């Protein structure tokens, strides 16, 4: 069964990671990247997590009450019985849960991803092979790079203006495509003058 890629707003949302080892650290980095409020509860928390900024650390064993008010929970201990128990409790409480050692216990899984500002690509093998998704991520980095992230921001910033000035979805699509083509051809961001010229060509006659 393939998993549906749902893009979720995690900004300022309370996310709990139970476990503080190598795998927990990876999840901390991902959730930080998407501006979540991360708490780690573990009997022993590794140095890499300790050194990560803006993570709340609680160094003790997990207790069921830790799940209160959490948007997402990740069971990342090295105890499969405990991870399973955490997942079951989350399911009864309706909290989305990821158990790092048993995909059957997960209500969501983590992808490999690339992020350049608001531009995000995510790859999943539905648990079949993270090595394949890592490979895909690395290959895609040559296309989804920093300048493309910047172009995405630029297109986003002219969106309202284009919607107002250009009539019809097909024409607006052409405007964005022309800006993209220009960027690919000249290998740098089009300037304001170049963008104005393209918008002008498609501007509605009033
Ligand atoms: C994508 C990534 C995101 C992240 O972790 O944030 C991620 N795993 C990554 C790396 C990775 N994980 C493993 C290896 C060793 C090689 C290998 O086993 O293949 C490597 C490679 C490495 O370490 O470099 C081992 C492993 N993984 C899982 C188990 C448990 C099991 O299979 O039962 C075991 C132990 C297996 C064993 O004991 O043999 C399970 C899961 N791992 C997932 C995600 C979810 C499915 C994603 C999907 O395939 O769609 C899922 C189901 C749950 C979840 O974690 O959400 C991240 C790449 C980040 C990046 O670089 O981009
Ligand atoms: N999903 C993935 O990508 C992936 C990849 C490799 C391994 N794994 C699985 O992830 C598991 C964790 O791996 P790791 O390398 O991070 O392990 P680890 O040994 O580095 O860390 C385990 C953590 O769990 C904590 N812990 C144990 N019992 C606890 C309790 N009762 N309450 C709170 N914290 C507790 C420990 O203090 C420690 O911080 C492994 O068992 C493995 O099966 C998952």
TrEMBL record:
Its EC number is 1.3.1.76. This is precorrin-2 dehydrogenase. The keyword NAD applies. Pathway: Porphyrin-containing compound metabolism; siroheme biosynthesis; sirohydrochlorin from precorrin-2: step 1/1. It catalyses: precorrin-2 + NAD(+) = sirohydrochlorin + NADH + 2 H(+). Keywords: NAD, Oxidoreductase, Porphyrin biosynthesis. It comes from the Bacteria. One of its GO terms (molecular function) is precorrin-2 dehydrogenase activity. One of its GO terms (biological process) is siroheme biosynthetic process.
